[in-house]
Amino acid sequence: MPAERCLEDHGELALGGEGTKIGVMNRTPSLTAVVLTCDRPERCRESVAHNARALAALPQSELLVLNNGRLPVELPERIGEVPIRVISMPRNLGAEARNAALNAARGERLFFLDDDVYIEPEHVAALGAVFSEHPDTGAVGFRIFNRGAEEGSLLPSVFHGCAVGILREALYAAGGYPRGYGYYAEEYHVSFRLRQAGYVLRFAETSRPVQHVRDPGGRSKDHIVYRLVRNNTRLLAAFLPVGVLAGAFRDMLQRYRLVGIKEHAEAGWRQGLRSIPWSFVRGLTERKPLSEALFAEFALLRQLNEGIRRLREVGAGEVVLCGTGRFPSLWLAGLRGAGVRVAAFLDSNSCWENQHIRGIPVISSLEKCLEMAGEGPIFCFSGLSSLPETAFWTEELARGGFCCLEEAKPALESEKDTCKNAFLLHETAKIGFWRFPSGF
User: In the chain, what are the domain boundaries?
Assistant: First the structure.
């Protein structure tokens, strides 16, 4: 099937005032799966064939391939009853290419997929159910696994960008995917803008996770670290309230400096440092800071305060935080302000070995945690980091003889009553409290 050529402005949006959409046709609600690919035609053909079968049970669904690469992608015009189209970008636009779907897709619900992502019919059904049962939903995230290992954003309140459903009108209101990011951190930008536009982010828990078969190798670690520093600098300058900006910026730089060392990408780290002045200025030019309430939601401050309340109830004056997460300095300040001393961070990423955050040691094993404790009980607080990190330490604590003082908080009852297995995205950060030894 010959590919359509994308006009230069497919990566841009024609918007009126804030949240005003121009030129959106009234369409019957339907689904367009949007696959983004770049110079991996064989992988793309394989995932498209699989995902078209997942879409087959849904009437009025289609599959749209956005080709960012130079190599052509040859696909049939339909697989079963699912029509397929290919649009070629004029150059590699990165994640920004997804904006082409706002003009080209026929569906009002867009299911954005990377070309190495594989979905099942239950994911399609769950996405439709969440949008139908909750009309205020702007985006629907999923649990993602890569060869048996879970993936997720550092903040569980932000969706994973490789497989996410977004309502077309919501993406218009949010201004689309940001220009100039390429890849990395764009899902934070879109998540923030969706919430600022009044849409809710939800998570569909299904019996099976979405499979992300990320190809090992073939990516420049230096370029990845450079973009992580550049894009996150721009992101923080654009969205974070002034009072937390310095601490968050320091945390970000520490994390990616350590990642650069671990991945032997010091050149990328240095390139990222050189990009900071320009990236910060660019973020300021598009600045629209999150309100206090929205920042508290994304930064999991309600969960933090709930943790502080519970720690006071059990008489814990000292705690170990499981996972460094996105805003460790902010969480440290909150705990210290409440009179709770943080003895250490636990983090499974080896880049943190023998490091400190604001003077607090980061350790990678429960054995070291027990050695630090001496004679007193150890209290651990989980749930502020990514879903994979929280799941890892929950398993490790249970296996290590820690006693769970309180079960992880369930989804809001109102959510469960109206749509089975639908969660507010920030409610997936389920806090847990652990004590060692197990007896009181």
Answer: 4-212, 221-289, 299-410+424-436
H/E element holding 346?
Answer: strand 341-346
Write the CA distances from 58 to 28, 107, 255, integer angstroms: 13, 12, 43
Contact assessment for residue 143 and residue 387, using Cβ atoms and an 8 Å cutoff: yes
Residue 210 is given by DSSP the state E
Residue type, position 167, single letter: L
Q: Domain 299-410+424-436 falls in which CATH fold?
A: Rossmann fold (3.40.50)
Q: What is the DSSP string of 218-260?
A: -S-HHHHHHHHHHHHHHHHHHHS-HHHHHHHHHHHHHHHHHHH
Rounded to two decimals, the pTM is 0.89
Average pLDDT per block of 10 residues along the chain, 440 residues long: 46 38 46 94 95 91 95 92 94 94 93 96 94 94 91 91 96 95 94 96 92 78 96 98 96 96 95 97 97 95 89 84 94 92 92 93 86 73 90 88 66 43 72 67
SS3 338: coil
Strand partners, 342: 319
Q: State the pLDDT at residue 438.
A: 46
CATH fold of 4-212: Spore Coat Polysaccharide Biosynthesis Protein SpsA; Chain A (3.90.550)
285 burial via Cβ count (<10 Å: 0-12, 13-18, 19+): exposed
